[in-house]
């Protein structure tokens, strides 16, 4: 009998040890598929496609490449800066709210809603037109907040299975994820008029940490759970688990350029084009993780925190767009833009040389497609004796990169403004949404609703 009891104890301890290893495998970052999918290397929460800024442009649905006639032109098409006739200063503020509703047939415990909101300065610029060497020219200095990383995700995730000896296990987890940060650039720009109908321009984007703001993002995840192991002999073993993961990405340093042209084909038709060059960013990443179970179990060492500091290279791809604007009257303008981003060439390379793509998968595992945006917008000016009151509208298709086919996102926008002497005030509302697209959690779909409100002020000198 003592030998049998001793064997039984060893068996139970072996099962406990194996179950703890399973628990660790499920919770340690990157070691389990659902954790890897949820927390990819670079998780951009705003639209990842590089677009410009400004309440006027966004009120037209972001269809602005062939218009680009205000101080935000450097972010859309630097060639459009040539249309500025007086010195201008602009500032753009934004309020963003995102609501995600998760649904899963296989894991109904995930069903629920997550909300996040954020307000910040989105853009600032100063532009100065002048004449030199018998040519009209414009210089401008710009600050743009291009990529946001603010996100919140709370969900339950349960899974079950069998061990090699036939024992059955059931694991119930709760995860809390938070992410914050942004990528910003300082961009001096220059435009020159080649002919009365053709102008070209360039913006130099310095993505740097040395201008008084932090360029980077942080993420934090806490997972707690309970594991039940039902042995073949009818014993029930219970473990509670806790895992904490924190990642800090800072000192984002890179450089690229925006090249643009604007061609006034006729009094009615204008064509604009922009090319944003690819760039590789250098990022300092600090990782901290710790996992533990209760009770610890015989033969298991105490939990040792995992710490790692490394340098990560992130390759952002080339993007380019073409726009056609139709000036149907002095009061009515319509613009159509098509814009493409080569997300298939994006990668993040960690210190050990391993690459992941934009979907967070190993470089060769999945092949995200390039994305093509289509944007249509218009502006109608109500002209009064003392001022101009614009009415703006926009429609757009703005897909997000994913493993395989992009996620289909659509949007609408409306906007207006007023001119008060030398001051122009603009505002717009943008609604961007997706229905039944793949969520960050496996076997889960989501409805994603994003509300964005922008307000711009432009001062003419």
Secondary-structure blueprint:
Elements: H1 2-27, H2 33-38, H3 55-59, H4 73-76, E1 88-103, E2 112-132, E3 135-148, E4 151-162, E5 168-195, E6 198-207, E7 216-230, E8 236-264, E9 269-276, E10 279-294, E11 306-316, E12 319-327, E13 332-341, E14 347-349, E15 355-356, E16 371-383, E17 388-397, E18 410-420, E19 423-438, E20 445-460
Antiparallel strand pairs: 1-2, 1-20, 2-3, 3-5, 4-5, 5-6, 5-7, 6-8, 7-8, 8-9, 8-10, 9-12, 10-11, 11-14, 12-13, 13-16, 14-15, 16-17, 17-18, 18-19, 19-20
Keyphrases for this structure?
9% helix, 4 helices, mainly beta, disordered N terminus, 59% strand, 20 strands, 20-stranded antiparallel β-sheet
Structure description:
There is one protein chain. The chain has 461 residues and is mainly beta. 9% of the residues lie in helices and 59% in strands. It has four helices and 20 strands. It has a 20-stranded antiparallel beta sheet that branches. The termini are far apart. The model is unreliable at 1-41 (pLDDT under 50).
Main sheet characteristics = 20 strands, antiparallel
The helix/strand order is HHHHEEEEEEEEEEEEEEEEEEEE
Helix content: under 10%
Beta fraction? over 45%
Class computed from helices, strands and strand pairing: mainly beta
- What is the alpha-carbon Rg in Å? 27 Å
Shape: elongated
Q: Return residue spans where pLDDT drops below 50 for at least 5 consecutive residues.
A: 1-41
Q: What is the rounded distance between the termini?
A: 97 Å
Instruction: Count helical runs.
Output: 4
């Amino acid at each position: 009998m003592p030998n049998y009891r001793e064997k039984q104890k060893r068996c139970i301890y072996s099962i406990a040890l194996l179950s703890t290893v399973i628990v660790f495998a499920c919770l340690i970052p990157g070691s389990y598929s659902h954790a890897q999918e949820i927390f990819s290397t670079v998780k951009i929460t705003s639209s990842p496609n590089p677009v410009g800024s400004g309440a006027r442009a966004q009120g037209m649905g972001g269809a602005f490449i062939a218009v680009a006639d205000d101080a935000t032109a450097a972010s859309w098409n630097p060639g459009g800066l040539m249309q500025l006739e007086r010195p201008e200063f602009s500032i753009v503020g934004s309020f963003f709210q995102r609501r995600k509703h998760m649904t899963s047939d296989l894991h109904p415990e995930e069903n629920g809603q997550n909300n996040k909101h954020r307000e910040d300065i989105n853009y600032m610029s100063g532009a100065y037109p002048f004449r030199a060497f018998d040519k009209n020219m414009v210089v401008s200095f710009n600050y743009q907040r291009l990529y946001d990383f603010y996100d919140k995700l709370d969900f339950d995730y349960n899974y079950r299975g069998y061990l090699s000896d036939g024992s059955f296990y059931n694991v119930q987890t709760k995860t809390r994820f938070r992410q914050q940060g942004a990528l910003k650039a300082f961009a001096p720009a220059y435009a020159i008029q080649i002919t009365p109908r053709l102008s070209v321009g360039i913006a130099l984007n310095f993505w740097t940490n040395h201008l008084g703001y932090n360029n980077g993002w942080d993420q934090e995840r806490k997972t707690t759970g309970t594991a039940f192991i039902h042995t073949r002999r009818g014993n029930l073993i219970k473990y509670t688990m806790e895992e904490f993961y924190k990642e800090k990405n800072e000192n984002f340093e890179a450089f690229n350029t925006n090249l643009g042209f604007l061609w006034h084909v006729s009094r009615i038709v204008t064509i604009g084009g922009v090319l944003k060059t690819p760039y590789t960013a250098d990022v300092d990443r600090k990782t901290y993780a710790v996992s533990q179970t209760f009770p610890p179990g015989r033969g298991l060492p105490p939990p040792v925190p995992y710490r790692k500091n490394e340098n990560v290279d992130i390759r952002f791809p080339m993007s380019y767009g073409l726009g056609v604007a139709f000036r149907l009257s002095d009061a009515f303008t319509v613009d159509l833009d098509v814009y493409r981003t080569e997300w298939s060439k994006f990668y993040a390379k960690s210190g050990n040389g391993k690459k992941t793509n934009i979907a967070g998968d190993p470089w060769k595992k999945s092949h995200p497609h390039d994305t093509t945006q289509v944007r249509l917008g218009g502006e109608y000016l109500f002209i009064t004796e003392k001022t101009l009151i614009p009415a703006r509208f926009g429609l757009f298709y703005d897909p997000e990169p994913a493993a395989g086919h992009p996620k289909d996102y659509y949007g609408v926008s409306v906007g207006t403004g007023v001119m008060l002497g030398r001051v122009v005030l603009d505002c717009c509302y943008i609604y961007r949404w997706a229905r039944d697209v793949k969520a960050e959690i496996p076997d889960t779909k989501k409805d994603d609703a994003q509300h964005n409100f922008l307000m711009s002020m432009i001062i003419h000198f």
